[in-house]
Design goal:
eight-stranded mixed beta sheet; alpha/beta; Rossmann fold; hydrolase activity; FrsA_esterase; 15 helices; de novo design (two linked rop proteins); 407 residues; 3 domains
Length: 407
């Protein structure tokens, strides 16, 4: 699915930003007009133009507040948050770049201004975690005890983005939802400088502990949702945290070992990948030729706090579900995107390794849902995910359709 750009990575990230339109995170014209101003393949141009749009929408939000237009202000703040997130996306090649904290910080601030103007019941939460904390948002439908989703992102998402991706849809369907950032993500890497870890159960368990203190949470119906790299992280956590009633991997991921990825990309080349100097030279060559490889390496070094490509290879080596997937006990849903350019074939590999009750759900190009994590088709994605959750957690619709109603 090519959108405006020939560059696959730029096209995908534009699609990702645009995909939040149904949930108030984008407006189509704003996104397209921004994209057409961007120089193909230029990270700097990407930042400049998205930041410009974010600032313009942010100013409209503040003007709406001054005019007393609560709904307009909320809508402008929400879109500004998504656009600031998008602007910051490709900046991680220089971790000391002050624009990272400044732009990401505006994404968080505008989101928090937006949720203060919502009718939704939402709380900012800090969950105690190994001397630090995990920033979270707890969204609840009302004061009743309800099934609850525990949602985290992956390699590059933020807690604020997760509202647009999952939480808004959960609330519409009567689910509570807690979204949080763990090591390597959002504020945890940017402010606390805590990098990714492979044993994600150590991250999820404190969040489950917190949820069990909430009277609005049904302790027997807590489901874990992991997105993108979260398709590895969530199953890893579910293998050891057995208080979960269900697990969703969107999309399924069996391993995230940068060394293995390098070996696959090396096919057709000569040279010894076991030679650290050659490995560095080879990956650097790929980074010059591929926007996707450049971004993946730069963001990997940023989120894993690796000082070199070889150190990044070492730090990602434990990220595999080999010998782990068969320890999952709860029902697990594995999603696959037909044309996933990140992790092709990995969902099936994860599904085959599971011994728990399991479901494989494929999204296709015919449905417009073939991209990684099904961006471009979030309404369809959430429809199918929540149908599965309703059946798995035995959730009954509160207001079934009245067949005698006049249409």
């Amino acid at each position: 699915m090519n959108l405006v750009f020939k560059d696959q990575t730029f096209s995908f990230e534009l699609l990702r930003t645009l995909s939040y339109t149904p949930y108030g995170g984008a407006d189509i014209g704003e996104c397209l007009s921004t994209a057409y101003r961007i120089e193909e393949g230029s990270f700097e141009s990407w930042y400049t133009e998205w930041y410009k749009t974010a600032e313009r929408i942010h100013a409209l939000a503040q003007d709406s507040m001054e005019q007393g237009n609560r709904i307009s202000a909320r809508e402008f703040y929400m879109r500004a948050s998504n656009y600031y997130r998008t602007a910051e996306f490709f900046l991680h090649g220089v971790p000391s770049d002050p624009r990272i904290l400044e732009t990401w910080g505006k994404s968080r601030t505008t989101f928090r201004q937006a949720i203060r103007l919502m009718d939704t019941l939402v709380e900012q939460v800090e969950i105690v975690y190994e001397g630090g904390y995990l920033p979270a948002y707890f969204y609840r439908v009302d004061d009743l005890q309800r099934p609850t989703l525990l949602v985290h992102g992956g390699f590059d998402s933020t807690g604020e983005e997760l509202y647009l991706e999952v939480a808004a849809a959960a609330l519409q369907r009567g689910y509570n939802c807690i979204t949080f950032e763990g090591p390597g993500q959002g504020a945890v890497i940017r402010e606390q400088q805590i990098p990714f870890r492979n044993d994600w159960e150590k991250v999820v368990t404190p969040v489950v502990d917190y949820l069990l203190t909430r009277p609005e949470v049904d302790p027997q119906r807590i489901a874990l949702v992991g997105i993108s790299l979260g398709g590895y992280l969530a199953p890893r956590a579910a293998a050891f945290e057995h208080r979960l009633a269900a697990c969703i991997a969107n999309d399924g991921l069996f391993s995230n070992q940068f060394g293995e990825m390098g070996r696959k990309l090396h096919q057709g080349f000569t040279g010894d990948l076991n030679d650290p100097s050659y490995m560095k030279e080879f990956i650097s060559l790929l980074m010059d030729k591929s926007t996707n490889v450049r971004w993946a390496i730069e963001n990997g070094m940023f989120t894993f706090k690796a000082d070199s490509i070889n150190e990044l290879m070492e730090k990602t080596e434990p990220f595999t579900l080999e010998g782990v997937a068969d320890k999952i006990k709860c029902p697990t849903l594995v999603c696959e995107a037909e044309d996933d350019h990140f992790f092709a074939g990995q969902p099936q590999q994860l599904y085959d390794a599971l011994t728990c009750p399991k479901t494989f759900m494929k999204f296709t190009a015919e449905e417009g849902a073939e991209e990684h994590c099904h961006f471009g088709a979030l309404l369809l994605l959430n429809h199918r995910l929540f149908d599965w959750l309703d059946q798995t957690l035995h959730v009954k619709e509160e207001n079934p359709f009245n067949e005698t109603a006049v249409v």
